[in-house]
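Our platform keeps sequence and structure together, in a single record for each protein. Such a record has a labelled line for the sequence and another for the backbone structure tokens. This encoding replaces a full spatial description with a residue-level series of whole-number codes. Below, we set out a record of this kind in full and without editing:
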Amino acid sequence: MIDHLGVQAADVEAAATFYLTAFAPIGLREAMRYPTDDQPVVGIAGADGFPHFWLSGAPSGTRHEAHIAFTAPDRDAVDAVHAAAAAAGYEVLHPPRVFPEYHPGYYATFLRDLDGNNVEAVHHTFGAARPG
């Protein structure tokens, strides 16, 4: 139920390249950008074209970790995110697999972005009942 999410990056251009490369297999693309006095602000969209995910410059010296999970339409897309990230030389925290400790059918890969954030592509394959 998130309308949009913003993440601060030390280098917005490098961060945009990371997200647009690693998550291209699930349809992430740049939707818009606007300049600021320091770095651009970049809006990234999925299939609906609306910029739900935003990158902006971080104040100098700040450091904090966020966890961001992007929905993948199927397990093949999760695998493709992993392949794209690995091919680009990005840090893979966990290669694609089922994480039953979260719930049965939770299939994901986890990456570390250039600012230290834990980002994932996840596909939920639910059986008869959904968790929660």
